[in-house]
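User: Hi! I'm a student and our assignment asks us to look at how structure tokens line up with a sequence. Could you show me two examples?

Assistant: Happy to help. In each example below, the sequence comes first and the structure tokens follow. Example one:
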Amino acid sequence: MAIVRLDKVSKVYGKNKLKVHAVTDVSFEVQEGEFLAIVGPSGSGKTTLLNLIGGIDRPSKGKVYIEDQDITLLSKARRSDLRLKRIGFIFQEYNLIPVLTAVENIELGLLLLGIDKAERRERVNKIIKDVGILELANRRPKEMSGGQQQRVAVARAMVTKPAVILADEPTANLDSNTGISILRLMQEMNHRENITFIFSTHDPMVMEMASRVIILRDGRIESEEKRD
């Protein structure tokens, strides 16, 4: 089943002489359970593509489908609702809320979904064990290392049980050993839970672990490589 489908998607920023063609005529599908890396040099359109898939931005042309729903037709409020329910995000800068503990950061999406306290507690307790951060439960972000914060961010993305997780340069601010540890964690979750991951990255480690690599250059797909 295709979790994500892009049909001739283009994105142009600015007008007239100031136009920037960030993405041009991009089409591909992402199947359930894939561990996909979108790679390319800075300015190639990687982050723009993630923003379009996540409904943060709308394409100038073309269609973006999440689970066969054309999200380009949705209002801003409905796209926001879709992100809450069906899309998880992992960012380069972690984006944890500073005043909340690890558990509170992870639980926030479940609160917004209106899930009752007993189920919230059950899900959060399970995920913090799964990603190995039980000892961090009551720490705030400033009391954690970068790798620990990213583990919390992974747990936060997964706890709502999304259809797809979008990871924008998730290892960029981590040393190589910590980066490998985080990637292996996500790969394990991908295999165990059949969670679909789409990475925007230029990290060779991500490319090595990916089940498929799409290479962008100047906003277009230059090539594609499927891994065993």
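Example two works the same way, sequence first and then tokens:
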Amino acid sequence: MTRSDQTDTMIRSVVPLPPVGKDKLKWYGPGLLWMLSAVGTGSILFTPRVASAYQYDLLWLLLLVVFFMWVMIREMARFSVVTGHSMLEGMHTLKGPRNWAVWLILLPQLFAATVGIAGLSAIVGSALVSVLPGANWLYSVLVVVICTGFTASGRYMKIERLSRIMAVVLMLLTVVAAIVVFSDGQSVMAGLVPGVPENADLYIILPWVGTILAGSMGIVWFGYWTASRGYGGGLIEEPRDQARQRSDPDTFEQRTQRIQAWLRVMNGAATLGVLGGLVVIFSFMVLGAELLAPQGVMPQGSDVADDLGRLFSETWGAAGEIMMLAAIIIALGGSILANQDGWGRSFADMTMILGRVEPDRAAPDGPAETQAGFFTLSRRTLKRLFIVVVTGVLPVVVVVVFEDPVQIMSASGIIAAVHTPFIVLTALFVNHTRLPQALRPGPFYSLAMLVSGLFYLGFATLYFVQLAGWI
């Protein structure tokens, strides 16, 4: 990475040729990966709850949040494509108290990771207790322990592949089931008109908003996945001479043109992931509105898996319920693995950033392990440490104390909705102050990012006002 002619702006020193024509399709993997990871708890748990309570009244809100999510993930990935570094590195360069932005990302996410893993495990536990004898908390603890062992050891790829296959199966079954039971087109059209349902409960709505497609750190992870795939050249973690063998550095203008082409490829991947996720989430809304709402059933408590099983049993009988429970166990089990890996990687990177002795003199193109700092542990060791403690031991404590999966995941969703405004607005500032003028977001995306951050800020404010009993 080099500084451009513009003060304090950053751009890669080497940019490989971007794919063209049909070859672009081969690069859409990160969009599919993000979709499979994002369509998890927010779809399986919170969407049927919202649909059971309000049917299609909040469809307009779903579409709005999905649009915001598309804007947010593509702008998060923009920094990585242009500079070769994660957005966390961009936040590290901001002026003010040392690493203030990184600290404000790390501390809330330590809590969010603990609660999020505990909630996912509790839902999987509720599915296991539906078919096996025993207590929900016991199965939830076993799920955390087993997943932590696989993730910390790095031997989880085969299980993760199986979970992604099951996630695809779950999505396809959900779409088919929604088509079979759908009957109320007029209500869907009415749901496109913005409005607030009577007796709207923010405790039901806010966790859903906070987990539609991705939580606050899930937005950041899309940038990791595109960088790992090699967009723009990937993350810079190798000597310059090796990078030069792949492509000539060329002029600033030529690099800018190549990066712009890579950004268009990234935009396609983001669009694919978001649209695919929207189809699945709307399908869960249909199932909740058509099957649960007429019966007055809202998935909650330790019976959440049984309630969700009704979504398929109404269509395919006992076999459908078994398929739903199996999908919850395997697909959400895979989500636990992916989230443990994602949080562990992010926490390790933030720790390496916070521990640098001379952050302004650290070699930008060298591996993070070789940069001078307070921590002598490698990124891999730090990642495993965070996985074991923050996404392993602490979630076990939460599961034992709070057995209700809905309560746990509601807390996680609320944290995501509250933390999202800071992440989004800070990222917008980083892109406008650290990227060259030609590679910054244009007026449309800048305004959309600003509105996205203010939208989540408004929801967080409403929740705290309700929590305080002022409304």
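Here is something you could point out in your write-up. Strands lie at 2-3, 10-11.
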